[in-house]
Amino acid sequence: MYKLTHLLFGQTEPSSVIRTTDGACIPFDPDNTDYQAYLRWLEAGNTPEPAEENQ
Amino acid sequence: MALTQVDQGLLGTNAQYTGFKNRIINGAMVINQRGSSSYTINTDPVYTLDRFSLGQGGNVNSFTVQQSTTVPTTGFKNSMLVTMGTGVTVAAGAYAYLRQAIEGYNVADFNLGSSTASPFTVSFYVRSNVTGTFGVSLRNGGSTATYCATYTINAASTWEYKTVTIPAITSGTWTTDNTSGLELYFDLGVGSTYSGTANQLNTGANYFGVTGTTKLAATTGATFYITGVQLEKGSTATSFDYRPYGTEFQLCQRYYQNLGNVGVSALNATGVVGFLFPTLMRATPTITFSYNGTSNAIYRFSDAAVSTLSSPTIIATSFGMQNMYAFSPASWASTPGYGYQAAFVLNAEL
């Protein structure tokens, strides 16, 4: 359902996650309702897919 | 010209009569950025005409929503039409509702939850082929306090104007920031688990329906038109706040933007760089993009090629997209100096 995004230049932690059902990029903003849904999904015991490897 | 008459409604001490008195956005159902001619409610919730969502769950599962040109004879151009498929007896834990969440900043002056709280009034035009007493609720963003009320549809398939005044709510927690401050719910078929008692503030559970009211979901082919939805400070319903189309559109864009094709360009090796949003958004938005209807596709000007990006990472804020990067195809998002184009959808709904 979700896939982690790769780290961009200078990042030490990801700042968004991909919703695999529609490819949406969901920012880690606590006021974003999609991010709130992602947090509930994590709390339910789910784990996101790992980020793709750098090419 | 001499002043000969003052409307009694204008004399209320708490009412507002200037522009922007309506805290509901797109209350006239004119803006439809998502662009669908018919919304099938297959998740909970589905955002339909701008700022309005419809949710359903349990055994209530066949509502659809359309933008309609059936309107009352009072100057409106559009209404929202909600149609029920096969009617059901609403189970206790089932629900169907029409909702708009109002950002806390936009109702901060109501002073909800304090001793200085102001009453407020909801008004709207409604038309249904089902008559009866229906529920309308005002809930806080934390889902812990809900004032429940009712209105009556007296005649079938006839436009009627309804007003519901909510007395000052002096308890509960009501946010006044960019999160959900006050949520308006129309009960289309909410079961007993989520229904509170009419004409009082219900606390201690998540209520967005009203006990003992008529459930539209119970009638096969039930129709429910609504427009002119207004929520204003004070205990008097005043005339609908007709705002310029462009202004209303920009108010909607704080929560959702469908930008169509936007040109972006690559910057050194950091990927495709971004653009400012036309309107400051409520929060950092969820972003999807496509080209000619293909998700994650982007058009490159230099060779008129289209490619689908794999796992694109987008960095954005509430005022703009700063960076978009994708690993596959590797050369696309990292070639400096190239121009690209894609249609972006930004979502910061409540």
Plain-language structure description:
Helices cover 20% and strands 20% of the residues of chain A. By secondary structure, chain A is of the alpha+beta class. In chain A, strands 1-2-3 form a three-stranded antiparallel sheet, with helices on one face. In chain A, strand 2 and strand 3 form a beta hairpin. Chain A is globular and about 30 Å long. The N and C termini of chain A lie far apart (23 Å). The model of chain A has no long low-confidence stretch (mean pLDDT 89). Chain B is mostly beta strands and 350 residues long. Chain B has two domains: 212 residues, Galactose-binding domain-like (Jelly Rolls, Sandwich); 93 residues, Immunoglobulin-like, CATH 2.60.40. In chain B, strands 16, 17, 18, 19, 20, 21, 22, 23 and 24 form a nine-stranded antiparallel sheet that branches. The longest helix of chain B has 9 residues. Chain B is globular and about 65 Å long. Chain B starts with 38 loop residues before the first strand and ends with a strand. The relative contact order of chain B is 0.17. The model of chain B has no long low-confidence stretch (mean pLDDT 91). Chains A and B meet through strand 2, strand 3 and helix 1 of A and strand 18 and strand 22 of B.
Provide a compact summary of the structure.
Chain A is of the alpha+beta class and 55 residues long. Chain A is 20% helix and 20% strand.
Topology:
The complex is a heterodimer of chains A (55) and B (350).
Chain A: E1 2-4, E2 16-19, E3 24-27, H1 33-43
Chain B: E1 39-40, E2 46-47, E3 53-57, E4 63-68, E5 79-84, E6 95-103, E7 120-128, E8 132-139, E9 145-153, E10 160-166, E11 180-187, E12 195-196, E13 200-203, E14 209-210, E15 223-233, H1 245-253, E16 256-266, E17 272-276, E18 286-291, E19 294-295, E20 297-300, E21 305-308, E22 313-316, E23 320-325, E24 339-347
Under CATH, the homologous superfamily of the largest domain in chain B reads Galactose-binding domain-like
Radius of gyration of chain A: 11 Å
How many helices of chain A? The count is 1
Largest interface: A-B, 27 and 29 residues
Overall 3D form of chain B: globular
Radius of gyration of chain B: 22 Å
